[in-house]
Amino acid sequence: MTANMHCKYAGSGRPRVLVGRHTDECAYDTCSGCQPCEDGHCVVCGMTHADGACAECVASTRDDLRSIATLCDSLPEEVEHRGINGEAMVLLGPAADPEARGHLEASIAAGRVPADYLDVADGEQHPLFVLGTWDMTWRDALEHEEPTERLTIATATDYLDRQMTYMAGYEHAPFEDFARDLRECRSQLERVLHDGEQRDVGAPCMGCGATLERVWGDDEASDGWKCPRCRERSTEAQYRFAVMDLHRRSATHLTDREMQERTGIKAGTIREWARRALIGRKRDSGRVVYCVEDVERVGEDKGMIPSREASA
To answer: What are the helix (H) ranges across the chain?
Structure first.
């Protein structure tokens, strides 16, 4: 038995080899192991000892399946935002009929049709086409009845999810191809929904703290910012106020006017404290700015602002 021994990759097209084990022809001197590992390996990752697909790859494939369904739920909003001429509309629209493709896939798996018969269709990433094709392929391979209701993303996801564990160990259908197609379909959806266009992000939402995203209207007056969490919209003026407020709350140095807005201590008092060397000051981009920590410390000592320890 070699299942408890460590094996490693030995090159493309070659079997994995056992570390520390050698063939009779091996010279030993510089070889860390060359005896082929005879145990079964995961059909997806090719590394873990397993009959069929390993638990990690099954979990990853299940996550891809469920993520496809979740991402598809976001397509209508993407179409509303990007318009009907984008890729999201193509993925949201009807798919090619997967039934004929499903029967051909099953025939290929059984050896009745040449493996390259469907090469012309490579790259089809419509989610309903991918899930529908594999729904029918697995139903045919596992001799399950065809559904009576119309095939949808939801029904295909439900069936494939329920059968996943059994499918992973079934040797008469290519689970590795199934996992690859789901992975590529998920990547395509993520690209369309997230990477197709650079998103402008801004300051945190003043309500919930999530990062605001830029939104564009029909004219300059309707441009603004939207919170992805609480869905609140901000005008450009409101956003600039939020940025100024964030700057005042997080900056280590502020101008005398900004310091007055943050602490309530008059700007003239701030300048006087700096002249008396009670607080630090410096020049930044042509402006004189004052140390926030020093101002708060002196302000607390003089009873002009509440103590931070008392507030805590």
So the answer is: 55-73, 75-82, 87-92, 98-109, 127-141, 153-168, 175-190, 236-250, 256-263, 267-275, 292-301, 308-311
Asked whether residue 89 falls in the same domain as residue 118, the answer is: yes
Report the candidate in 121, 111, 124, 269 with the shortest Cα–Cα distance to residue 185: 124
Q: Which tens digit of pLDDT belongs to each residue from 7-18?
A: 665 555 666 766
- 224 and 235 in contact (C-beta within 8 Å)? yes
Q: Are strands 35-36 and 281-284 parallel, antiparallel or unpaired?
A: unpaired
> Looking at the structure, do residues 167 and 257 belong to the same domain, yes or no?
no
Let me know if 33 is exposed, middle or buried by CB neighbors in 10 A (0-12, 13-18, 19+): buried
- φ/ψ of 5, rounded to 5, equals -95, 155
On whether the CB atoms of residues 204 and 211 are closer than 8 A, the answer is yes
In angstroms, rounded to a whole number, what is the distance separating the alpha carbons of residues 141 and 172? 7
- Does residue 44 lie within any of the structural domains? no
What residue numbers bound the domain in which 297 lies?
A: 251-311
In a domain, 45, yes or no: no
Closest CA to 277 of 291, 265, 261: 291
Dist CA 109 CA 207 (whole Å): 55
Look up tokens 């009807």; give the residue: 94
Q: How many domains does the chain have?
A: 4
Specify the DSSP class assigned to residue 120. Answer: G
pLDDT digits (tens, 9 = 90+) for 185-242: 888 888 777 644 445 667 777 677 778 787 776 666 677 888 877 778 878 777 777 7
Residues 270 and 224 reside in one and the same domain = no
